[in-house]
Each structure stands twice: as structure tokens, then as C-alpha cells.
Design goal:
The protein contains twelve helices and 15 strands. With 351 residues, the chain is of the alpha/beta class. The protein has two domains: 242 residues, TIM Barrel, CATH 3.20.20.70; 65 residues, no CATH class. β2, α2 and β3 form a beta-alpha-beta unit. Bound molecules: S-adenosylmethionine (SAM) and iron/sulfur cluster (SF4).
């Protein structure tokens, strides 16, 4: 089972970002960190969770590095018995707030993996995205994390923006691969509602050649693609858990939990969440819904999906795709060699 903790605070808001995060609510941090403990305590009872059940913890945001390490103490103390012995414990971090002190503090508390939101090493592109850091800060944060002893380091890049050219993206990768990373996430810019970019959708470019070229460059430089946007020889267990359709517990405002055939949602608004962290809305998933999700997730990653999930007509369509080399079958599981085509293929199979 996976554990996710959401931190909804940010120092600034990026022009593309629709995540549940706020720049004006830092005064709530203390109360928020207490509320997550109340929610966790309640979930343990509701899910009847046993000790050692969580194989991963992922602290995401928002910006987890907006919150001082000591403020995580109560939460870490509470979850400790429920983490498995070698649990992967990841935190996201922003280069401008992940100071050496913060990194050390998180390491002392058991974090063993960091995912830095770098997005680009180009000054102008960072300003265009409204990032709060410089390329140098990103470089220093990664190097500091490595010096402090983190071996499992990742960074996020965004591509497919109006600023991009092959030479800019090549420079981004040159810089990234100079750093001590074992994992890289490359996200194609998505235009989200209620973001500044929503009013200027032309900032996203639809250049398939550039996207294929960029992914190929990452692979050629030595990090294999294990999922549409993720590259590593040592995939994040937490990410992989989602693709494998594992159960997860979501802690924090706007977080989502999933158990067997149900999803659970907390309050989206931080103040409302703090006043009632144990509220949850339940959604019952149909067998068809679960099957479609397993197919889509499987096609977007190395995980693939079980051939036996399909009905007769779907099996025939998959066979056509196997015959034309769009898919292949291995040990009874269907795999997709081109993750960019995942949505199209899924639609064709399910109709
Ligand atoms: C949950 S976000 C937050 C991480 C952290 N606060 C940061 O910004 O560095 C994780 C990653 O999602 C990606 N992301 C967020 N919104 C996106 C969008 N609209 N299009 C593409 N990538 C996006 C960014 O690369 C970001 O680093
Ligand atoms: S990308 Fe990260 S820093 Fe930027 S607004 Fe979103 S969560 Fe905050």
C-alpha cells in the first residue's frame, strides 16, 4: 500500500500550475500539520491498517520545502510503525526553499528520495513559467542534496512550451545530466483551467517531432523510459505503485485515497480541511471503470495489463494491434512500446 501526504503551500504560483496549492495561507501551516495527524489517526482505524503496511510515502504539493522539517515530526512519529522496513520515502522540493538545513532535517527524519521541481535551466524559460528560482539555485540544491547523502535524486523538467527549441532543450538535458540524478521526470506542458496560461493556450506547442526527439535524447543519455513522463533504471516505487493499481491512502487537503473498489476524497479547501480533516467523500467504482483504468495505466507504463481482463471483441482488437506491431504480449500481459499513443490505443480497445 502507498501513502501520500499533500502539502498545499507554495511561495509563488507558477503560470501553468493547477495543483491544490496556495501562496497566502502560510499562517495555517501549524494547524495544518496537526490536522494531517488527526486524519491519519482516523484512517488507521477506518482502513484497519496493520503495522508495516506502507511500502512508500510520497510528500507532494504544493511545496513540501515550505514547511520546516521539525513541523513534520508528529506526522513521522505517528506513521513510523506503519512504514515497512525499507520504505521509499520521497519528498518533492523546490530549489529556492530546499536549503541545506532543510535537506539535512528531512534526511534525519528518514526521507531517502528527493524530487526537485527544476522545470528548466534556462533563465528566460523559468521567468516565462513564473518559477521562483534561478538555474544556479537548482544546480546547488541538487548538489547539496547529494553531499548530504541522498542517493536517490530526481528532477522535473517541462517541455512543449513556446520558449522551447532543440538547442534550449539540449541545454536543459546537458545541465540535468551533469547533476547527480538517478531519475528524471519530463512533463509535456498541459494547459490547465484556472491558471494564467489558460488565457494564452498558444504557450503550449504541439510539436510531436520535438517531443519524440526529447524523449529519445533522455533515453540515449542513459535513463530508460518506464512511464510516459518518467525515466530511470530505478523507477520510483511510489509512481510504479499507481501504475500497478495498488491501494493508497491520501492524507491532506484535496488528497485522494483508493482501497479495493472505492476512492475517498478529503475537503479541497485547506481551512475547511483543518476544521474537519476526517471528513471523506466516497466514490464506488464499477468493475468496468476499474478495468478501463487498468488498461489505460498499463498502456502508459512498462506495467502493461492482463490480456484476460478483456472481452472477446476487445481481445480481437488487441490481436490486430499485436499483428501490426503496435502492442506486444509477454507472459499473458499486453505491453505498449510507445507510451505517447497510450490514450489512442486505449480508446480503440475499449471503444
Ligand atoms: C506537484 S508539482 C509540484 C512540485 C513542486 N512544487 C515544484 O514545483 O517544484 C510536480 C510537477 O508537476 C509538473 N507540472 C505541474 N503542472 C504542470 C502542467 N500544467 N504541465 C506540465 N507539468 C506540470 C511540474 O514539473 C512539477 O514539478
Ligand atoms: S509547480 Fe510547484 S511551486 Fe509551482 S505553483 Fe505548482 S506546486 Fe507550487
Amino acid at each position: 500500500m502507498l501513502l501520500y501526504l499533500h502539502i498545499p503551500f507554495c511561495d509563488s504560483k507558477c503560470h501553468y500550475c493547477a495543483f491544490n496549492s496556495y501562496t497566502h495561507l502560510h499562517a495555517l501551516i501549524h494547524d495544518y500539520m496537526k490536522a494531517i495527524c488527526r486524519q491519519f489517526e482516523r484512517e488507521i482505524e477506518r482502513f484497519e491498517l496493520r503495522e508495516g503496511i506502507f511500502e512508500t510515502l510520497f510528500i507532494g504539493g504544493g511545496t513540501p520545502s515550505c514547511v520546516a522539517p521539525s513541523l513534520y515530526d508528529d506526522f513521522f512519529a505517528q506513521i513510523k510503525p506503519f512504514l515497512s522496513k525499507d520504505a521509499e520515502i520521497t519528498t518533492e522540493a523546490n530549489p529556492n526553499s530546499a536549503s541545506p538545513k532543510w535537506l539535512e532535517g528531512m534526511r534525519e527524519r528518514g526521507v531517502n528520495r528527493i524530487s526537485f521541481g527544476v522545470q528548466s535551466f534556462d533563465e528566460k524559460k523559468l521567468r516565462f513559467l513564473n518559477r521562483a528560482h534561478t538555474p544556479l539555485q537548482a544546480e546547488e540544491a541538487l548538489k547539496n542534496a547529494s553531499k548530504i547523502g541522498f542517493e536517490n535524486l530526481s528532477l522535473d523538467l517541462i517541455y512543449g512550451t513556446l520558449e522551447d527549441s532543440r538547442s534550449l532543450l539540449k541545454h536543459d538535458l546537458d545541465q540535468a545530466f551533469e547533476l547527480p540524478i538517478s531519475h528524471l521526470s519530463a512533463y509535456h506542458l498541459t494547459i490547465e483551467e484556472n491558471t494564467p496560461f489558460y488565457t494564452t493556450p498558444q504557450v503550449r506547442t504541439e510539436d510531436d517531432d520535438l517531443a519524440y526527439w526529447f524523449v529519445d535524447q533522455i533515453i540515449q543519455r542513459g535513463l530508460p523510459q518506464y512511464e510516459i513522463s518518467n525515466f530511470s533504471h530505478t523507477p520510483s516505487l511510489h509512481n510504479m505503485g499507481y501504475w500497478k493499481y495498488k491501494n493508497y491512502l491520501g492524507i491532506g487537503t484535496g488528497s485522494v485515497g483508493f482501497l479495493k473498489d472505492r476512492r475517498f476524497y478529503t475537503h479541497h479547501d485547506p481551512a475547511t480541511y483543518i476544521s474537519n480533516p476526517i471528513f471523506r467523500k466516497e466514490e464506488l467504482l464499477t468493475t468496468q471503470h476499474i478495468k478501463e483504468e487498468k488498461i489505460l495505466l498499463g498502456l502508459r507504463s512498462l506495467v502493461g495489463f492482463d490480456f484476460s481482463l478483456l472481452n472477446t471483441q476487445e481481445k480481437e482488437r488487441v490481436q490486430t494491434l499485436i499483428d501490426t506491431k503496435k502492442l506486444y504480449i509477454l507472459n499473458g500481459r499486453i505491453h505498449n512500446p510507445n507510451f505517447f499513443l497510450a490514450d489512442e490505443i486505449a480508446l480503440y480497445i475499449i471503444l
